[in-house]
Amino acid sequence: MMRRWVAGGLIVMSAAAVAWAATAPAPKRAVKDETYAQLELFTDALGIVQTEYVDDAAPQEIIYSAIEGMIGALDRHSQFLRPDEYEEMRVETKGQFGGLGVEIGIKEGLLTVVAPIDGTPADAAGLEPGDRIVKIDGQFTRGISLHDAVQKLRGKPGSRVVLTILREPEDALTDVILTRAIVKIQSVKDARLLDEKIGYVRIAEFQENTAQDLEQALAALEREGMAALVLDLRRNPGGLLDSAVAVAEKFLPKGVKVVFTRGRHEDQNLEFSAQAAQPHLGFPMVVLVDNGSASASEIVAGALQDHKRAILLGVKTFGKGSVQTVIPLKDGSAVRLTTSKYYTPSGRAIHGEGIIPDVVADERDEPAETKPPDVFERLEQREHPEQPVKPKAADRQLRRAIDLLRGIDVYRARQG
């Protein structure tokens, strides 16, 4: 079975699917004369570099750099992976690694926190979705690639890294000192019964056992008399697509569409439907989302919203819904290429759009403002203290969700 990942905020194929991609027949395309002409131009440029450049340049390094430029110019998610980078990506998807426990992305040209992972150094330091990482160990991140940023953030467990964070709308610039650690991700967290038999379950990330762990949590809550559920997907950066579909189908009738993809070729147009035999349909739901809800969590939220199974509450999600297929090359390197995009059951694009909740409720008193991408010019001379990031306010969104479910219960009681 093909398995797709959302790694580092991006949806990619797993190692099993990579093997499939490597053996799958390439689509037939007419090779135009223009392509040959441009390849001849490239060959000429390569020859000039090798014969005229002041230093002797290794052919592999030249070719690697050329491929990096070609793939990187397509979009911000496509990437050429050198052999060591490809191996690192495969290790990353195993669910345990040394680092800070923070999902990052490039948004509006700036290195941005997608979501800190629960129970990690980034979470303990108070990092929040939307925080801009202006510096890493005193070096400005202007123009940094995601791969280079990850390399700088990772390190030996116990070592320290200093992040300079810009938080909006406060416009506060703060140095945060974090100690790297082995990051172990617990997927289903904090399953408990709240007042008036309202259940609460938080999913921190979608992993292989998430659906099974969620089923156990739901069964325990139902035994305690759960009559309504708050499913918390805030600060959930994604994970396995298969897991996201398995979670969504627990709350949907069998056979309904969960998500579908559209790409350039017919074999990239896929559809995923609910297959669960005993979904949990007998209680009202509120799903909490925020700007740290990305990829797989957006798939779940979009499906439950489209099928009117749950009320979404919070703020617009991150908007990561493009599919990157990782295709290995013969020397151990690989190409990660955007091949399709995800859509909710009703046909709404996730990528670049995000999911808009039914009830908009920000944790802050005022909505965050969007800063222009010239932020570095405004900050290069600014002084800033070294102190912990201010923790976020009390959970207003959860309180709103509880009030909403209580209102539904009152309405049903009055209807008899």
Describe it for me?
The chain is of the alpha+beta class. It has helices at residues 15-23, 33-52, 59-72, 83-92, 121-124, 146-153, 210-223, 241-248, 296-306, 375-379, 396-415, and strands at residues 4-7, 10-13, 79-81, 96-99, 102-107, 110-116, 132-136, 139-140, 160-167, 172-179, 181-184, 188-193, 198-203, 228-232, 257-263, 271-273, 285-289, 311-314, 322-328, 334-343, 359-360. The strands form 5 sheets. Strands 1, 2, 3, 15, 16, 19 and 20 form a 7-stranded mixed sheet that branches. It has a 6-stranded mixed sheet with strand order 12-13-14-17-18-21, sandwiched between helices.
List keywords for this structure.
21 strands; alpha+beta; 6-stranded mixed sheet; Pdz3 Domain; 2 domains; 416 residues
Structural class: alpha+beta
Distance between the termini: 48 Å
How many helices? The count is 11
**Low-confidence runs of at least 5 consecutive residues:** 1-28, 365-373
CATH topology grouping of the largest domain: 2-enoyl-CoA Hydratase, Chain A, domain 1
Give a count of the beta strands, DSSP E runs of length 2 or more: 21
- Give the overall shape: globular
Do you know the CATH architecture of the largest domain? Alpha-Beta Complex
